[in-house]
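Hi F.,

I've been meaning to write this up properly since the lab meeting, where we talked about keeping a consistent format for the predictions we share between groups. The idea is simple: the sequence comes first, exactly as it goes in, then the structure tokens exactly as they come out, then a line or two of notes. No screenshots and no reformatting. I'm using this chain as the first example so we have something concrete to point to.
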Amino acid sequence: MLHLSLTPCFFCRCLYDITVIHIVCKGVAMLLEKADPSLYTVKAVLILDNDGERLFAKYYDETYPTVKEQKAFEKNIFNKTHRTDSEIALLEGLTVVYKSSIDLYFYVIGSSHENELMLMAVLNCLFDSLSQMLRKNVEKRTLLENMEGLFLAVDEIIDGGVILESDPQQVVHRVALRGDDVPLTEQTVSQVLQSAKEQIKWSLLR
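Output, unedited:
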């Protein structure tokens, strides 16, 4: 009799466990569906001056389809970040990583669920690449004189929102190789080529 009285409880317990597992699995599936993993990691790259004015902007999707919407977003992002020491912000449902240098502000933007470390890797790669190309003189005047190099570097790092490269040495080397097709200023070309030659020389000596 004791055995028979325990049997219903056993089945009730099994049914309860199955229900819990079903709910948990359904919740995980919903989270994965919401995350929508994608290779298209980067939504935009921005460089603003210390007044919040655009020096460079490249958007990779239609989150802000018009120039007016883009400028409003850039003003908002500058107002929220230019007086803080943080490197990450959440703004308008987006993840923003950023850093400043003298009179410049660099931004890489991704979706709200994007991995901040991946976005930061893109930001650091861009900044370090420009730092090498401009001989560590990363400021507004020098950047404006070498915008061609900036465009080339960004294209080497990101293509349509997909991250292609996170190694600044590789970016500088490829910009140097493309320098013949899209001329930079004479000074910058020589700097990039010299840097690339040094990297090749040391790699051969290892």
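Notes:
The beta strands are 44-49, 54-59, 88-91, 94-101, 104-111, 158-159, 162-163.
The mean pLDDT is 80.

If this format works for you, I'll send the rest the same way.

G.
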